[in-house]
User: What shape does this take?
Amino acid sequence: MEKVTKQLLDWYHINKRDLPWRHTTNPYYIWISEIMLQQTRVEAVKEYYVRFIDRLPTLYDLATIEEDVLLKLWEGLGYYSRVRNMQKTAKILIEKGYKNLPNTRDELLSLPGIGEYTAGAILSISFDKPSVSIDGNVYRVLGRYYKIEESISKRSTYSIYEKYILHILPSNNAGDFTQSFMDLGSLICTPKSPRCEECPLRKGCLSFKSGEVLLYPKKDKKKDKKVVEMTVFLYIYKNKVAIRKRENKGLLASLYEFPNINQVVSEIDIENQLIDENISYYSVSKIGDAEHIFSHVIWNMTGYKVVLKKPIVDYLWVTKEEICQFYSIPSAFAYFCDSFLNCI
Assistant: This one.
């Protein structure tokens, strides 16, 4: 057990990545980095992290910023519920008189958007408290090292991995221990093409010895994603485009989008609909097709540009500059956003 821990820490101290959030132990900054890193690549997070803490350097700044401005700051990272929960947490803590995040697991777990892994990461990295932090990297490294047969798709498997972590958890260097899994899992013990010959744990790794590395960690077969066919409309009037705000619940809640419907229609269908609704227009033309894959659903989108003689009153009409500065358009609509920005 001590050998595994030493191997991990020795390797990390030599090979650790130079990342912006590794120049601080401020719990607020560590929390921001951990939330951003959920479902997002490290390289993509770097720029967002620096910009975010520059704009919102304190918990109070996050608590008091307007939601639309916050969402625009987050634009491109996706999974917007993450940043909404961050603001909820900031407001709760400020109301209770905190100036930073608390340093106990129970307090952290009581806050919106902070789960077992994030709480453990904050406690270990910011406060050097030995803490269990199990994410995909830990599942992969330990699942392969010990050849753990239980599927990580099952919630009950967490406790099995927790026991393994507790066996090798050091009494100090807690933050380095947590981050050693992050780097080993990202750089060496990768999902599809692990570099086993460079791994500090290879001599004791059971799946490496048996030649079965890619079979671990065990997972249940994923269900097929639901596919939604959509038509997206770029209604153009002079130098402006029509957008609308989505409902305040569900997928992409409260974000702005281009008008769309959950069915595929043709140019003739669109023209007939415009005529039926007595909407004057100059032209209807197809933009192209785009796909966006969410965790549980796939959007197959076909886009049309509709140049109007008069604006439709139901929508918010914005310029290219306003979209770039003020309105958060989800990356799902990036193809069509680029189309508008390039056609004006």
